[in-house]
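Handout, section B. The chain below has 157 residues.
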Amino acid sequence: MIWRKFNGDPIDLPIFDAVEAAIKRESDKGYHLKVCIGTDSQVKGPETEFATVIVFLREGHGGFMFIHNEKTRQQYSIKERMLVEVAKSIEIAYELCNLFTIYDVDMEVHADINTNPHFKSNDALKEAMGYILGMGFAFKAKPEAFASSSCANKVVN
């Protein structure tokens, strides 16, 4: 997986090492961190582009994020696409969760799924919530899921 910073600079380390270095650096500066992981997607003609973000929040001092993009030509129903987004976020959360435990960093998985039943994405809410909570992660959906609905959304649009 190729990751980059928001400014476009590539992250040359494996993502585990890059996240650990970021946690150490920010902790050494005295910041209390919280990490939010989310994925959003956008259908563009025959392709679907996914963006997964790891958002680091410095309590009271802004934040920064690491970004991974990928494109596929696979076709999805809206529910399938929402659940693929969640699976991509969980994959990264699971890879990094031991780091967050070691360094006592709170982590949430954000799903770009609307809690309002009038929206199509709501069809995937129960499955997504069960998947994320079943993995033992804190869960946020819209409108609280800013990592997916704002940060990752900005990357794919």
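Note. The beta strands are 3-5, 10-11, 33-44, 47-58, 63-72, 106-114, 138-142. Compare this with the example in section A.
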